[in-house]
Give the backbone structure.
Amino acid sequence: MRKIFCESVGKYLELKDKCERIISFSPAITESLFKMGLGDYVVGVSAFCVRPKEALQKEKVGSYNATNLSKIQSLNPDIIFTTTGYQRDFALKLSEMFTVYAIPLPVTISSVIATCIEAGYVAGYYEQARKLERELLKKVSKIPKLEKEINAYIEIDLGGPTTFGSFSYITNSLSIYGIKNIFSDEHKEWFYPDFNRVLEEDPDVIIYEPKMFRPIDKEAVMKLFMKRGWINLKAVKKGHILVTPGPYDFLAHHGPSFIEEVLPWLINSISELQNIP
């Protein structure tokens, strides 16, 4: 048995040398476990764990902050993974009955990588975690930076318009590649956007992410912005609006695909816009 301290729940966890029955309530952690080749050890996931497609075949044990305790008991997990933030109170409550490890939410691209591999270390699969870390570091280094920095407004529908400040991995990751969030000076992770400031900042590009499972097209997003009175924004006038691919979370997902798919898609899409006269 190993003893590992989980700072997020404030206790030592007694774990097997290698955990072979894992439950994950975090889509990012679930994707990471599969990327490390540990999918066979995952016995339960949340309803929002949709990456990779193999995760969809796993037993559903709840949502972000709700679960069926009897179902968890029947699965007899060696460890349960959650994140902090919105899930922290849920993790603390769950830790009264089960062995729970809550991995902190990332705030930078470096901590995105740390989040992706931490579950592997905690579960006892050190080499698999190190291999994934090497792969992600290599991919981060190969993503090209934009030739010309642009200002961007980022909005995700999380049950309402949501944007991001200086404490967000989205803001910090995009800045490395030349995409400056117009709210990067706000001392917050996420918040309801000030639409008047969007008008004042007049961003070069708007990046819009629909609510999960409810994809909409660019035309519908344009109509939404027109209703807000954004007709004179240069991003709207030029059609420089990027709607992230659905139906799942895209920017709002901080698993390995954030580095492997999301950032390259953004850079390529914005580069194409910059090449349009």
